[in-house]
Amino acid sequence: MNNKDYFVRLGTLVSNLQSLEFFLRVYLQQMPDSKPFGIPKGKDIYQYPVGSELPLNDITSYDTLNDLIRKHNKYAVKQGEEIVDESIVDLRDALAHGRVSASSPNSSLRLLKFSRPNRTNKDKVLVKFNEVLSLDYLDQQIKRIHAAIMIVNAKLINQ
Asked: Closest Cα partner for 87 from 144, 137, 139, 21?
């Protein structure tokens, strides 16, 4: 694998994860029980400088991707609609908190993520994620995240 192909796919994967999170936030903001957006109509959220206080809503909340997917899926189940695969969170967390390395210069890169120390034996951790970052694997994940985006996007278009 050449570095350019790897970097392009990794960048695509990360941007798809960011897009999914934003689409979920927009979807949840439109639900009947959501908090009011609270920003005046015509005011661009991107115009607020660092240090500005904004109302808490689904766009500004500190909800994790896992929280957002679960909230989405709760609505989807009630409506008999397609849900988003919660295991996407495992990949996102591994990318954010994992370690990328190879056992030798000629080996494939692997993404590893470990648990917090074991409660009963604080000298032990669990392997939580272990995948070879091949181009095929990255392509599969890009397609998987894109499919999740399309699930949410279809609902936004139909609202």
From this structure: 144
Residue type for position 67: D
Residue-by-residue pLDDT tens, the chain, 159 positions: 678 999 999 999 999 999 999 999 999 999 989 988 888 888 888 999 999 999 999 999 999 999 999 999 999 999 999 999 999 999 999 999 999 998 888 888 999 999 999 888 889 999 999 999 999 999 999 999 999 999 999 988 877
Rounded Cα–Cα distance for residues 139 and 148 (Å): 14
Q: In this structure, what token pair is assigned to residue 43?
A: 């005011």
Structural domain boundaries, residue 70 = 3-157
Are 131 and 110 in contact by the 8 Å Cβ rule? The answer is yes
Distances from the Cα of 52 to the Cα of 34, 37, 38, 76, 95, angstroms: 22, 15, 14, 34, 30
- The pair of structure tokens assigned to 81 is 């609609």
Count of the separate structural domains present in the chain: 1
Q: How many other C-beta atoms lie within 10 A of the C-beta of residue 99?
A: 11
- Find where tokens 């181009």 sit: 135
Q: What is 45-106 written as a DSSP string?
A: GGGPPTT-----STTT----HHHHHHHHHHHHHHHTPPPPPTTHHHHHHHHHH-EEE-SSTT
